[in-house]
Amino acid sequence: MTEIDPTKPVLVTGATGYVASWIVRYLLEDGHTVRGTVRNPDKSSGLEHLHALAAEHEGRLTLHAADLLDDGSFAEAMDGCELVIHTASPFLLGKVRDPMAQLVTPALEGTRNVLGSVDATESVKRVVLTSSVVAIHGDNVDMVGRGPFTEDDWNTTSSVDHQPYPYSKTVAEKAAWEICAAQDRWDMVTIHPGLVLGPALTTASKSGSMTTMRTFVNGSLAGGAPDLRFGLVDVRDVARAHVLAGFTATAHGRYITNASSMSMLKMGRILRKRFGHSYPFPVAKVPKSVFKLVAPAAGYSREFVEKNVGYKLEFDNSRSIDELGLTYRKPSDTIADQFQQMIDDGLVHKPIGR
Ligand code: NAP
Fold first, then answer.
1. What CA–CA distance (Å, rounded) separates 317 from 258?
2. In Å, how far are 68, 73, 110, 178, 242 from 113, measured between CA atoms?
3. Which residue in 33, 211, 222, 324 could disulfide with 280, CB within 3.0 to 4.6 Å?
4. Is 169 marked active-site?
5. What residue ranges of the chain have pLDDT lower than 50?
6. What pLDDT score does 352 carry?
7. Is the beta carbon of 36 within 6 A of some atom in ligand 1?
């Protein structure tokens, strides 16, 4: 049982992020005081939504400079906080030039850095860490011959060369549990979202969530989509899960936060039903053999295609519902809300005649 004093400031790392921005917003709306860390609090773009939230909730949101690779840089902002929500970590999909430097090192060393400061900060009682379903499983082929993945499962198949982003999340979470187990002053709860979609509070995020949705408008799926399934969840529900995990005294361990699993083709069907036929949403299924040929040009290895296309994927989200009281939005609304927002933000050009 860990009771967090709701009047104490809450630290959110990577506050600019797609997911973290919603966490910050919900914490403020719930009446909490928030310290958000950002790499550069003086940058001229990408912080507008946080400045607006700070103005709306006067005196309750401050931004602090901290970098995952700068040891000890989170300590000052953490001082006096009982709850630390650690979301900062790069989420890059497709072709990554240097996976070790761009993904694994910031995820792993960043987690060690943040938790090192947690260890040294007497006020901290709980850490909520943003992990992922990709720390639960590696490739969709891992699903063959078994039931839905649960919190007892770990990704054992990813490496820095094959599925580097899942690998970065797995090693970072493992390190976090080791650091947590070495002491008994603070506890940790980890949140495991599937692919997070839904409206963004910022257009500046480079999250894989944005790049995934962009493939539905930039024509790259116009010729069809492979039978590739992934877990999917609304960004607003993921943010709420972090807040619930922080303030539910009995919360413990890992929580899968995934609404359902879906294929790119099904997403295309949902978008077509809501927004019509004028956008380049995928209609046809690209055969696995054909996708395998063209995949490297799209940033996917042939090994990835072999081990992920054409397999079902299921997760058991019952812990998040039963223990955190989380409710999930309908995935069709999540997808449509994000697409509508992309239109409103001018990121999608309306087809002629609409
Ligand atoms: P995002 O918008 O790209 O946010 C990533 C955040 O990490 C940004 O605030 C970024 O700060 C920060 N960051 C990256 N490198 C950093 C560094 N060296 N030092 C300090 N901060 C750094 O991505 P997101 O989708 O919101 O992801 C947030 C978290 O959710 C990540 O842990 C990700 O693995 C996890 N997650 C995401 C999904 C998903 O589908 N989106 C699914 C499961 C888990 P800057 O603004 O300074 O770049």
1. 6
2. 7, 8, 5, 14, 20
3. 222
4. yes
5. 352-354
6. 47
7. no
